[in-house]
Write a structure and sequence with these properties.
It contains eight helices and six strands. By secondary structure, the protein is α/β, with parallel strands linked by helices. Strands 1-2-3 form a three-stranded parallel sheet, with helices on both faces. The chain has a three-stranded parallel sheet with strand order 4-5-6. Helix 4 crosses helix 5. It starts with a strand and ends with a helix.
Amino acid sequence: IAMSAGNHAQGVAYHAARMGIPATIVMPATTPFSKVERTRQFGARVVLEGRSLADCKDATERLIAEENLYLVHPYDDRDVIRGQGTVALEMLADRPELDTLVVPIGGGGLMSGIAVAARALKPEIRLIGVQVDSFASMYQAINGLEPRFGQATLAEGIAVKSPGVLTRAIIAELVDEIIPVPERQIERA
């Protein structure tokens, strides 16, 4: 089982199908139809629950208990973080002159993996995380701010209310800056 608004869902569904393992993916009911449909096309059972990834947590935990399922966490998992680090390896192999990487942050898996790999290859590289300001949970957690969230965002894949424990520690240590970005800038981009 996995909970995801899209990319992790599709990755887990794809590999479960390749390995002949049944997959259940819990997705927010607000997930774009195309992401839900692609996940189903890989053979996963999709359960739509709530408005955000945070809303999926209770349904995921209930299904784990009822059906004895194994959770493949979308970001707070060492293997997921390691896998995400391959993005930095590929970027720096293609463009070794890169001096700054700007990475979106939801729960922190992608940023953590990229930070570990990039720092290992190029310790002086600048690492900047970006979060939509209505779901800036990692920024708030690292800066000791009271958590507060908006209703919805175009960036639904990173609308995470609780950043990972592993990812928070990695990001606090390795990332230079996290920038909360207003929704209107995301829409324009």
